[in-house]
Amino acid sequence: MDNVLDINHVTKRYKNGRGIQDISFSVNQGEVFGLLGPNGAGKTTLMKCIVALCDVDSGDIHIHGHHLHDEFEKAMESVGCLISGVEAVDYMTAYENLALAARFYPGLPRTRINEVLQWVGMESHKDEKIKSFSTGMRQRLYLAAALLSRPSFVLLDEPTNGLDIEGKLDFQHLISRLAKEEGVTFVLSTHLIEEVERLCDRVAILSEGTIIGETSKKELGGTQTFESFYMECITKRKEEIRHA
Ligand SMILES: Nc1ncnc2c1ncn2[C@@H]1O[C@H](COP(=O)(O)OP(=O)(O)OP(=O)(O)O)[C@@H](O)[C@H]1O
After folding, report:
1. Is the pLDDT of residue 103 over 90?
2. Which end of the chain is more exposed for a tag (fewer CB within 10 A), N or C?
């Protein structure tokens, strides 16, 4: 199987009936795949399902051809993620937090910690306890943690939340470089449409737990943008609901 990620008919419903229904799509190696949608559409739920932070009710997820539940360790071997609500240890420094995470990857050289801290512009803060960090500084650290293990597949849930202008641009360059030069595959959710236009090769639009559109830069051609495609899908969906 060539795809890095294959999602087939995945449904996850919380006790209150909300969640995601019958989601299917695939992501190829080296692609930057955007998950877009209004607040509450199900983006975080889907990402949590992909890294098994949420059990699915039905459907299958394969990563690099490995079934997420039947071959969990193999499937997760090369995965890095930044998911909302995952916290770091406040009384430890940035470096210590990453060193703690690095213990899960015995072959990883210590120099990798400094490398990822430098990538996210945090090397000068590495010996500070993170309880004093701002939202953006924390977000930079979480991004460093997601990239620490040299993952070949990375999930990023609203990764530039709280980042300043320079941080957002640095992030976009970093993701483009890793995708193009090192073939790293990314699935990212964001509400920043300029980020989508700059970074994504392909997108899926989620609304009320289902995919209402999927397209690629290639399919859009020169005239349409991801933004216009997004608005088309959302407007069409609203019309359908109005006439239902
Ligand atoms: N733990 C939970 N228990 C019950 N309902 C939940 C839970 N987490 C999310 N939901 C509901 O599931 C739906 C999808 O939420 P989710 O957080 O996945 O959306 P999202 O697209 O990531 O939203 P946002 O853009 O606001 O981050 C929402 O209706 C939300 O209220």
Report:
1. no
2. C
* Cα 206 to Cα 47: distance, rounded to the nearest angstrom: 12
How many A from CA of 112 to the centre of ligand 1? 34
CB 127 within 8 A of CB 120: no
DSSP state of 126: T
Identity of residue 223: T
Residue of 108, 134, 102 lying closest to 121 (CA atoms):
134
Bridge partners, residue 189, by sequence: 35, 157
User: Residue 233 CB: number of other CB atoms within 10 A?
Assistant: 22
Q: What is the DSSP letter of 88?
A: -
Q: Whose CA is nearest to atom 17 of ligand 1?
A: 44
Beta bridge partners of 211: 206
Residue with the nearest Cα to atom 29 of ligand 1?
Answer: 40
Q: What is the pTM of this model?
A: 0.93
Residue nearest to atom 27 of ligand 1 (CA): 39
The ipTM estimated for the assembled molecules is 0.98
User: What is the edge-to-edge ordering of all strands in the sheet holding 185-189?
Assistant: 79-82, 153-157, 185-189, 32-36, 202-207, 210-216
Order of strands across the sheet that contains 58-63: 19-27, 5-13, 58-63, 66-67
Interval 201-236: pLDDT, tens: 999 999 999 999 999 999 998 789 999 999 999 999
Of 1, 25, 21, give the one whose Cα is nearest residue 11.
21
* Residue matched to tokens 């309880």: 131
Q: How far away, in angstroms, is 180 Cα from ligand 1 center? A: 32
Alpha-carbon distance 94 to 141, whole Å? 7
Ligand 1 binding site (Cβ under 6 Å of any ligand atom): 14, 16, 18-19, 37, 39-45
